[in-house]
Structures are given as C-alpha cells and as structure tokens.
User: Which sequence fits this backbone?
C-alpha cells in the first residue's frame, strides 16, 4: 500500500489529467499526466496549450512507475568480497491501460547504489533543480523495536516505498522526466551503468574543494539564496531534532502499552483463585492483552509519518546543493570580473608606462632596465587578446549566473509550495493516526470497565 | 467469652463445597449476597479521601446495641453494624524536637456512641502512635484481620522521608487504616482505639505495662518453641492458607506491574513534554506551514496534561490500593499462623494429657481444665477468623473492583479528551474536497 502522501499525489494528477483529456484529442493515448507544474491553471485554454506542450516534450506521461518487489542477492562487490544485498524490481506500465497492461522495457532489478548513482548524475547534470531525495541509506532515528539492519524486512519495505516515491517524483518533474539516462534506468537492465559513465558527468562535477572555497570567499551572493541556505540549515536542524524526540516518545509509549500485557497474565492467574471475580478478571485480562498488542500497529503507522518528515529532511540537502551552485557560479563571476579588472590594469600600465601598482615586472624593469618596444608591443597584443577572452567569459558567466538564478528560483518556489502542501497533509494524517489510537484506547478501557464492574 | 456459634459445621451442609480453595466456601451465608448489597450502597472511592471527607457508609441495617453475644452473632451472620464512628486523618505537620524531626497528623473523630464522652474529638498522632495502636489491636485479637499500616520505610530509594508525595501517600494509608478499623464490628470496640482517638497525650498510656496483653504473646511464643507444628489443621484453614499464598503472589505481581507502568508513563511524559515545543520551534521558520505546526504543538501540549492527570490517578488510587492489599496478604498469613499456634498449643496440652506421665490426680484435673480452656480458645479463634475472613473478602473484592473500575474509567476519559483535542485540530484544518483521508 502506498503511503497516504503518495496516493494524494497521484490522485491530484489523475484529477487534472481528466480535465485535460476532455480538451485534448480523445483518441490520444496520452492520459495520465504525472507532471503537476504545468496544469495548475484551471482555464481550458491553458489546458489546451499545456497538453500540446506535454505531447511534444514529455516522455513519461503514459506510465505508472512501480517498485514492485525486492529480493536478496549475493554477489561479489568491488573489492571482490562476497556480500548480500537487496535489489528492487522496477516495473513500468502504460497509465491508462487496464490492470493487465504490459510492462514497458526490461523491468530491471536495481540495487540501492544504482539509485544513488542515478541521483548523483541528476544532481550534477541539473544543478538548478531541487533533486528529490532517496530514502535513507541506513535506518536512523530508530526506536528500540526497529532493527537498524538494512536487511530487516520492515526496513526493506519502507525503503521500497521510498524508492518508488523517488522515481515518481523524478518522472513528474518537467525537466528531469525528459532525461534519457533516467528513462534507461527504468527500462534497460543491462548496460545502464556504462551509459551513465559515458555521459562523462563526473567531469562536470565541481570538486568539493572548489565548492567550499567558493562558499567561503564569495562576496555578493544573492540575498534570496543566502536566506534559502539559512532556512535549509534551520529546517534540517528542526526536523532532525523532531525525529529524534519522536523516536524516544514512540519508545516510551511502546513500553507503557507492553507492560499492560502483564496485567492480562496476572488477572488470568488471579482469576483462578477467585470465585466471584474470576470471570470479570479473566475477560478484563483479555482486553489488557488487546491493548498491549495494539501498539505495534499504531507505531508502524507512525513510521510512515516519520518517513514523510525524513523525506523533507533530506530535501534540505538538495536545497543546499542549489545554494552552493549559485555561490560557485557567483564566485566564478566575481573572479572573472576581478581578473578582467586586473588585466585592464596591466594594459594601462603597459601603454602609459606608469606603474601604479607594485608588481614584480615593474620592479624588475626598474632594476634591469626597460624592455624593448617590440617586446612591449607583443606583450600588449597578448594582453589585449586575453582581455577580450576574459570579457567574453564575464558576459557568459553573467548570463549563466542569471539563468541559473532564474531557473533555480522557479524550482525553489515550486518546491516550497509542494512542501507546504505535502507537510500539511502529513500533519493531518498524523492527527488522524492519533484519533485512531484514541478510539482504540476508548474501546479497550470501556470494555475493561464493564468486565471490572462484573467482578 | 461465651462460645460463638461455629459456622463451618452448619454451612458445610448448606453449600456446595468445591474443590477450589475459595473464599466462597467459608464466607457465604445466604443472607449476605455476594458483595452486592454492600457495594451498591457504597460511596465511590472509599480508599482515597480529601482531608476532612467522611469515610464511606455501609448500608447494612443490623443494629448494634452493644451486647457481646449479639455482636458475635451478627459477626457470624456477616452483618455490619451501622456506622457510628467516623475518623479522618489530615493536616500533616512537621514537628521538630531536639532529638528528632517527625510528622504529626491530626486525627478527627465524630461519633454518636454512648460510651464516648463527647461527640467530637481532635488529637494529634505520629506514625509511631499508629504502630502502637495496631500492635495492641493484634494482641487483643490475634486472629482478626486488621488492615495494614503503610510501611515504615520505602525501599525504592527514590522517595525521601519527608517528600510531599510520601507524606500524602502515608496519610491516605493511615486514614484507610483507621476507617477500616472503626468500621470493624469488633475492633471498633477496642479500648485502645478509643484511647487513641480521645486522649490528648498518648505517651503515658503507651508506657503502661504490657499487662495481660503480652501474656498471650508470651504464651504463643512458648507454644512455638514447644510445638513442632499443628497436626490436624482443618481443611478449610489449609485452603485459606493456600489462598493467602496465591493472593499474596498476585498482589505482589500487580503492585510491581503498576509501579512499572507508572515509571514508564512518567518517562513518556518527559519525552512528550519536549516533543510538542519542537513543532512550535519549527513553525517559527515557516510561513504557511506555521499554522498547522502550531496546531499540532498545541494538541501535544494538551495531551500531555491529560497524561499527567491519568498518571496522577494511577499513583493516587490504583497503586496504593494494590499495595495495601499486598500488605493485607501478609496479615492473612500472619493471622493463619497465629491460629495454628493456638491450635498447636492445645494439641500439645492434649498430648501431655494423653501421656501417662501424670502422677497426682490433682495434676490431671489441672491439665484437663487447661486443655478445656485452650480448646475454647481454639474454637473462638477459629470462628473469629472465619467470620473476619468472610468480611475481609467482601471488602477486598469491593475495594479492588472499585479501584480497577475507577482506573478503567479514568483511562477511558483520558483517551476521550485526547480524541477531542485532535478532532478540534482536524476541524481547523478544513481540507478542500478531493483530498480527504478515510
């Protein structure tokens, strides 16, 4: 069963897609639209235009993505050691087909590390996009019942859902969904890894060092981005803290419920020596057992809520990535501008002969005599060329910077709307879980009271 | 003491004796329906009282004009005399002397009894005084089941001698002890009880020699040394013994489980109190999301308060009740032991009589008299115990049932309140159509 949040997600899409269908050519196969960004407008005109855009660009409108199963495999890893790992089956079916729709592509089995590779590729290739996060690599924020073992079936199941969620989010994105590597990931069992590496995306990666020094030295990052970075940090901190304490609360609650199970046992034993109270005690004991057992389901449901929060916790990393990229581009722009300024400065010195700024060249010419006019001419020419190149570079960088800011800010806006919407739904579902828990409690204790009354 | 009618002989024929050792077998007298007449007229919450409140009143109608025989007959029939003595224990105060510091409680008594000079009394007593009273009652009625006192020390180590909670718990237990004693048809007539409730200064009376009261204690001890154990214990007392052992086991287990629940609940409450504010802190970072986040924070806060209430009920009602009945179980065993000693003493005397090592005729006569006296003692001890056992059983069932019902009720109430809190929150988050959850 998919998580509540996910269900709502797809429901919204199905809803809007039906509107589209009436407008569009009904013979068309294109039905379920997974991308929600283009269809927020209710006007039919817009819908028409959007449909046409969709038809031209979207690769994945027609599919439902399903991470259907998981399996344990054994194999040799990169250091030639035997290991056990889990793989997940990816199935794609046409969206509007009846239940028995045939799968598209190979239905490949993928392991977690391949998902990581895909995500890294997307991060580097589309740095202005807030890339959806993967479910956690290792179980964190556990309370005592959950095992932190990656092979634990509950963990595997929740991870399966998380991976499916990830793929659906990518497929819903107007830009990401068009990526060929992504499509191959979904459909081609063999050769995918090679295909990814062939794109040479790793070369495009910004080194950590470069990125870090940019962050530290950039002078004028856009205020929106600095604010965004601060928000990401604070949100990360807030959600981590929340998840940690939630786990502790869950642990304690588990304890309280489970100890009540002892009442069941003792009442039962006690009922054996009591004539009048025996029946009442015995049946009350059963209710205590019920009460004690009910906590397992309650806490399992809450795990889904925790997963929703975790997703947004991990989203903060994606936000920070975008901010870092902005800082990097901005820094490069600033460096280019400085570079240009310094070269112009040098040109001025060369042409006028005035040495305004201390330089080794200046010193050495003072000490060893001026250079010849020919030398100076050739140096000037080289400098002029360099300046030209640098001016172009500055223009390009400026352009890049502005493009990046525009595109990424669109992204961020979209992300914020999505976050507000989905987290609000998560909070509502949390309230519903609490209500369900309370109803169970009322039932149990009212039953127990009846039994006690009969004692 | 005149011979009291012995129950067992008559009733064993009337009732269906079951294999199980069971209170039912010994206690039931058709006229006393299974606890129902007593419970239906009982005011709720008999064990816990706010200071100054009255103890519960019993509904039984048997009159109580004081002839001992009539009283014993009433005992035999299981009737309870109309309440004419009400006691409360309150106002704990610290009392400091050069040597020590201790707590003194105010004890109020109200009575319509003729043998009391006044109708209202106020005295001040400390824990040791209660100990003295109970000791005297035991001496006077070795085979009656006297309600236990709260323990001298708390072994848990968490509670300090003068902490508010400890004092309050002790006060309630002392109150219960006195109330139950005042209700008891025989014990409420005890001269020591009267003295305890009426004399301003108890020290003089406490110093009065052991007198006849310790004689019984000595003789019981002597019997213990002389005798290897009771030989022909009647089956009904054997069954009582088994019951007492089992009951003690169960009460101990229940007491421990309840303490454990209280502990876990406390820890849950601690974590919960940190959890809610985190939603508020998160809300400070957000715009649109702030409102639902604060809503959740508010809900958690309210639920936390309800949890405190529920915890209080466990600590103040259920746990003390279970604990007291755990102590009662020990009393049961003690009382049965004493009865055995009394019978053993008689058997020893009989043995002495039977053995031919008697020289003079005068000695034989003396022995016969002594044996007869001991036989009477055995019979009266047995009947007192049986009657009181029945009485105790009814009270126990009633008290435990009340405590459990009240706990279940409180727990249900807790969930109902929390439910309301979350439903209010849901209402505030009116979702647009198409996004409803089940």
Assistant:
């Amino acid at each position: 069963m998919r998580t509540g949040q996910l269900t709502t997600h797809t429901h919204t899409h199905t809803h809007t897609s039906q509107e589209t269908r009436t407008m569009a050519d009904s013979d068309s196969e294109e039905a379920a639209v997974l991308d929600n960004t283009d269809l927020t407008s209710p006007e039919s005109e817009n819908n028409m235009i959007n449909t046409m855009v969709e038809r031209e660009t979207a690769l994945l409108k027609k599919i439902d993505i399903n991470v259907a199963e998981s399996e344990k495999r054994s194999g040799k890893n990169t250091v030639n050691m035997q290991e056990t790992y889990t793989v997940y089956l990816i199935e794609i079916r046409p969206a509007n087909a009846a239940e028995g729709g045939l799968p598209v592509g190979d239905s490949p089995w993928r392991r977690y590390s391949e998902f990581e590779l895909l995500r890294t590729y997307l991060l580097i290739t589309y740095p202005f996009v807030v890339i959806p996060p993967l479910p956690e690599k290792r179980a964190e924020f556990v309370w005592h019942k959950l095992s932190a073992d990656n092979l634990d079936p509950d963990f595997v199941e929740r991870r399966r859902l998380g991976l499916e969620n990830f793929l659906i989010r990518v497929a819903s994105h107007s830009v990401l969904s068009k990526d060929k590597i992504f499509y191959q990931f979904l459909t081609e069992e063999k050769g995918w890894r090679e295909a990814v590496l062939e794109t040479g995306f790793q070369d495009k990666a910004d080194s950590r060092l470069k990125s870090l020094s940019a962050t530290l030295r950039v002078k004028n990052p856009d205020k929106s981005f600095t604010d965004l970075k601060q928000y990401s940090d604070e949100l990360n901190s807030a959600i981590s803290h929340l998840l940690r304490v939630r786990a502790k609360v869950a642990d304690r609650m588990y304890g309280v419920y489970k100890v009540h199970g002892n009442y069941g046992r003792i009442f039962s034993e006690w009922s054996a020596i009591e004539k009048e109270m025996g029946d009442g005690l015995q049946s009350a004991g059963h209710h205590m057992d019920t009460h004690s057992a009910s906590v397992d389901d309650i806490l399992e449901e809450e795990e889904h809520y925790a997963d929703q929060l975790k997703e947004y916790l991990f989203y903060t990393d994606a936000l920070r990535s975008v901010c870092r990229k902005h800082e990097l581009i901005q820094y490069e722009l600033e460096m280019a501008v400085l570079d240009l300024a310094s070269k112009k400065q040098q040109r001025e010195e060369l042409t006028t002969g005035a040495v305004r700024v201390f330089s080794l060249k200046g010193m050495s010419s003072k000490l060893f005599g001026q250079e010849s006019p020919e030398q100076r001419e050739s140096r000037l020419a080289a400098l002029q060329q360099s300046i030209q190149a640098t001016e172009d570079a500055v223009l390009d960088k400026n352009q890049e910077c502005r493009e990046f800011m525009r595109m990424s800010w669109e992204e961020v806006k979209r992300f914020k709307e999505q976050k507000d919407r989905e987290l609000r739904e998560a909070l509502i579902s949390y309230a519903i879980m609490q209500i369900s828990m309370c109803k169970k409690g009322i039932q149990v204790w009212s039953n127990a009271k009846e039994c006690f009354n009969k004692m | 003491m005149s011979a009291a009618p012995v129950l067992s002989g008559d009733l064993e024929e009337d009732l269906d004796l079951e294999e199980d050792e069971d209170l039912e077998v010994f206690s039931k007298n058709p006229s006393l329906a299974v606890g129902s007449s007593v419970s239906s007229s009982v005011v709720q919450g008999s064990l816990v009282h706010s200071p100054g409140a009255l103890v519960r009143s019993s509904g039984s109608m048997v009159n109580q004009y004081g002839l001992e025989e009539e009283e014993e007959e009433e005992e035999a029939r299981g009737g309870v005399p109309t309440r004419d003595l009400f006691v409360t224990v309150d106002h704990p105060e610290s009392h400091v002397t050069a040597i020590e510091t201790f707590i003194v409680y105010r004890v109020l008594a109200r009575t319509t009894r003729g043998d009391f000079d006044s109708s209202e009394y106020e005295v001040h007593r400390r824990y040791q005084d209660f100990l003295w009273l109970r000791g005297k009652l035991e001496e006077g009625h070795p085979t009656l089941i006297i309600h236990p006192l709260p323990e001298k020390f708390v072994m848990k180590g968490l509670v300090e001698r003068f902490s508010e909670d400890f004092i309050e718990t002790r006060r309630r237990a002392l109150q219960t002890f006195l109330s139950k004693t005042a209700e008891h048809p025989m014990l409420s007539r005890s001269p020591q009880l009267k003295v305890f409730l009426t004399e301003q200064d108890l020290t003089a009376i406490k110093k009065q020699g052991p007198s006849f009261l310790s004689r019984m204690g000595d003789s019981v001890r002597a019997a213990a040394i002389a005798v290897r154990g009771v030989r022909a214990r009647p089956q009904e007392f054997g069954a009582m013994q088994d019951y007492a052992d089992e009951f003690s086991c169960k009460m101990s287990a229940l007491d421990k489980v309840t303490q454990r629940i209280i502990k876990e609940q406390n820890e849950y409450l601690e974590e919960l109190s940190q959890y809610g504010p985190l939603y508020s802190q998160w809300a400070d970072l957000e715009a649109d999301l702030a409102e639902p986040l604060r809503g959740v924070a508010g809900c958690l806060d309210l639920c936390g308060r309800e949890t405190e209430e529920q915890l209080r009920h466990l600590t103040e009602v259920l746990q003390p009740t279970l604990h007291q009945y755990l102590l009662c179980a020990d009393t049961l065993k003690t009382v049965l032991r004493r009865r055995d000693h009394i019978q053993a003493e008689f058997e020893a005397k009989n043995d002495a009589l039977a053995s031919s090592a008697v020289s003079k005729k005068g000695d034989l006569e003396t022995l016969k008299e002594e044996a007869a006296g001991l036989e009477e003692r055995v019979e009266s001890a047995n009947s007192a115990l049986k009657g009181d056992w029945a009485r105790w059983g009814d009270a126990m069932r009633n008290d435990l049932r009340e405590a459990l019902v009240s706990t279940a009720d409180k727990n249900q109430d807790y969930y109902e309140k929390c439910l309301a809190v979350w439903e209010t929150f849901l209402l505030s988050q009116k979702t647009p159509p198409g996004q409803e959850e089940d």
